[in-house]
Amino acid sequence: MFTFEPAAVLRDVTLRDGLQLTGGMLSTERKLATIRSLLALGVESLEVGSMARPDLVPSMANTLEVLAELTPAELARCWVWVATPRHVERAAAAGARNFQYCFSATDAHNQANIGRTTEASLSAMPAAVEISRDVDGQIQLCIATSFTCPFDGQVDPSRVVQIAQDERAVGASHVVICDTLGQAVPAQVSSLITRVRLETPAREIVFHGHDTWGLGVANTLAAISAGATMVDGALGGLGGCPFAPGASGNTASEDILFATRPPWLTPDVFGSLVRVSEALLMELDEPNRSKAAQGARSPAKAFDWVL
Fold it and tell me: Where is the Pyruvate carboxyltransferase domain (predicted)?
């Protein structure tokens, strides 16, 4: 199998970050079917929606309906994007127990994305943590634009470390380091993940990468080697941030899985995953950017991973 070590969990973010830039909309029923297909195949974790304003991100308008239809066992493997304590409260009322509390390392992007300063978002985090604890949930500290900002350029790594060290974020179960624009390189990713692991309170580390400059998989493997225990990807490389000019698709889940080969991923399971991805992308009228999915359609049939 050649499983990549150390191991990390893939969180598929198709139904949140993947859908943000698409023109297509998915019904509650279609989202539920996708969630259940991915979970049944063995994908260990999913991000299934966002509490962002539906007038700004219409594809997230039915997030609460999706959460309300999931079983407790399914919800235990699903995450929802939040940016305020009120978001956590509303998502929790619908059944969510895993929350990704996100804000940006730079004020410029945080204002564009969330409409407040980074300090304001950080100041509100203890209340968000408290609400998550009240429902026996867990909450992640998600730092967008950890490497570069579309408005301010390069981000000082010490700024990211400072946020992760802040006592108002100590209640987080994970720290999510985001290459929002896909402009980081592997040595840079490894360096920042290592600093966060060594210089901030002990928490799980997540890497969220984009493939804008073609280094999505390389950066993901660098993050895992540096200590990330969860990594994000989206089917077919779908997605991007509508409030970050220059941000294109996420690193493809298919590419991450083919590179890391977790024990549950057999050639047959991979083939089923590619088919789920292809059907969804066709419905959304989006191209398939996954190199592994393209390889799976190769005429070189002697290779076990070719469909």
Answer: 8-274
Q: Do 215 and 184 meet the contact criterion of CB atoms below 8 Å apart?
A: yes
The structural architecture, per CATH, of the domain 9-297 is Alpha-Beta Barrel (3.20)
CA dist 100 and 94 (Å) reads 15
Joined tokens for residue 262: 């977790």
Q: Position 57: which residue type? A: V
Cα–Cα distance for residue pair 218/290, rounded to 1 Å: 14
| pTM beyond 0.90, yes or no | yes
299 cis-preceded (ω within 30 degrees of 0):
no
* Assigned token pair, 125: 């985090």
Read off the tokens for 5.
Answer: 């070590």
What pLDDT, on the 0 to 100 scale, is given for residue 244? 58
User: Hey, how many other C-beta atoms are within 10 angstroms of the C-beta on 69?
Assistant: 16
Percentage of residues of the chain with pLDDT beyond 70: 97
**Which residue type is seen at 8?**
A
Active site residues: 241
Q: Output the six-digit token pair for 103.
A: 């804000």
| 3-state DSSP percent of the chain in helix, strand and coil, to 5 | 45, 15, 40
What's the pLDDT score for residue 243? 59
Say if residue 6 is preceded by a cis peptide, omega within 30 of 0.
yes
Residue at token pair 């399971």: 269
Q: Which residue has the tokens 């070189």?
A: 300
Residue type, 85: P
What is the spatial distance between Cα 182 and Cα 214, in angstroms, rounded to a whole number? 8
**Is-contact 209 216, C-beta < 8 A?**
yes
| DSSP reduced 3-state for 261 | coil
**Cα angle for residues 256, 202, 166 (degrees, 5° grid):** 105
**What is the C-alpha separation between 62 and 64, in angstroms, rounded?**
6
